[in-house]
Predict the structure.
Amino acid sequence: MEKRIVIVGPSSQILGIKIAQELGVESLNTESKKFPDGENYIRINIENETLIAGKEVIIVQSTGPSASADQNGRLMELFMMIDSVKRMGAKKIIVVVPYIAYARQDKIFRPGESQFGHAIIYIINYFGIDEFYAVDVHAPIMLNECSCKAINIDSMKLLADYVKSKGAKDIVVVSPDKGAIERSMAFAKHFGENIPVELLEKERDVKTGEIDMSGKLNLKDKDVVIADDIIATGGTMATAIKIAKESGARKVFAVATHALLLGQAKFRIIKAGADEIIGTDSIDNEASKVSLAKIIADYIK
Ligand code: R5P
């Protein structure tokens, strides 16, 4: 009998099944809903609980918001799935959360706040899992709090390969803020040696969330790749694109591992002058051009 099984969480239906296919193992989906009082319900689609007992169980559930559920619901579903496979006697529990909600709440910006990104990890620790995989975590240091093996998978090569496949040439990578500079430098290396990286300065008002961005860039006749870990409202990306276009950029690729694309983000980014918005299937939407399935499966193997 097969020793491994993938539980495909409701937020990662395509990625979850693809990981199972890459691993060559069985998969189970779930049935989920909200009760009238707002509580979450999830059930792994299984008629016989002995199917889980003694198995190595891989749960795949990203925790980004979507039209059908917010990140709080996705987190609750994740915790409930871990709880149920534990109760059913899984021998080993591997949890894959490509996008970790609340990861941007990793620091105290104003007195009285919660460092909730860390609290998510403490809750996962409580369940006593065996392995944890996430992708391009906003503050990778968070994973040091994991009490099990924890890996932050780097999707940059996959994203760079996609941009190259679109025929980008004379590339300059633009980092939208200081926090993204290391990532942008690592990203640039995937396009070749000596690919320039230009830096924009971004200040975010911690009370209003408004951003102020500046920078003098020389991008005349260059194809520009702006790389961030997350596109949420699109404010950061759209502002960076506008500056890149004003600085002479030819094509602009808006790249993010986790393209949440909330509200008017797509409109803002394309209107600012981007040729394409490129994300991974950590978030299942129209920007998921790059699949993480193989790289995640390779780590699990
Ligand atoms: C912030 O530090 C992140 O790396 C992103 O730049 C930010 O989350 C993007 O948010 P938005 O799309 O709302 O500007």
User: Anything to note?
Assistant: The domain at 4-154+291-300 is CATH 3.40.50.2020 (Rossmann fold). Residues 104, 176, 179-180, 228-237 surround ribose-5-phosphate (CB under 6 Å). The chain has two domains: 4-154+291-300, 156-281. The chain is about 30% helix and 25% strand.
